[in-house]
């Protein structure tokens, strides 16, 4: 019974502290800027179109990863569900 109570208390403490949330790793402050990861695809991460197919392409950094899209409206689509699109980068 004590073990169960201790486990319940520990899980409550972790939930309150936010330990169950994925943590973002932050580089040590060395005074140098950390460059974002390069974008490995030749197509828009949202539409799979060529990056230049809609005129001026757009790029931005999301959690340390450079993301490129074929147009500015694709940025909003990406931001609605980034996990869906980031799957395309796995294994690249």
Mind explaining what this structure looks like?
This protein is of the alpha+beta class and 92 residues long. The chain has a domain at 35-80. 32% of the residues lie in helices and 11% in strands. It contains three helices and two strands; from the N terminus they run αββαα. It has helices spanning 2-17, 73-80, 82-86; strands at 58-62, 65-69. A two-stranded antiparallel ribbon has the order 1-2. A hairpin with a 2-residue loop joins β1 and β2. It is elongated and about 65 Å long.
Question: What is the rounded distance between the termini?
Answer: 49 Å
Q: What percent of the residues sit in helical stretches (DSSP H or I)?
A: 25-40%
Whole-angstrom Rg: 19 Å
Give the strand order of the largest sheet, numbering strands 1, 2, ... along the chain: 1-2
The secondary-structure class comes to: alpha+beta
Give the strand tally. 2
Biggest β-sheet description:
2 strands, antiparallel
Spatial shape: elongated
The number of helical segments is: 3
Element order: H for helix, E for strand: HEEHH
Q: Classify the beta-strand content into a percent band.
A: 5-15%
Average pLDDT works out at 81
| Uncertain regions spanning at least 5 consecutive residues | 19-25
């Amino acid at each position: 019974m004590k073990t169960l109570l201790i486990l319940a208390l520990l899980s409550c403490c972790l939930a309150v502290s936010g330990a169950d949330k994925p943590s973002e790793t932050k580089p040590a402050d060395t005074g140098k800027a950390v460059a974002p990861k390069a974008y490995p695809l030749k197509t828009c991460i949202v539409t799979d179109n060529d990056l230049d197919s809609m005129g001026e392409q757009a790029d931005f950094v999301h959690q340390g990863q450079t993301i490129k899209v074929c147009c500015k409206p694709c940025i909003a689509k990406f931001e609605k569900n980034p996990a869906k699109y980031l799957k395309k980068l796995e294994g690249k």
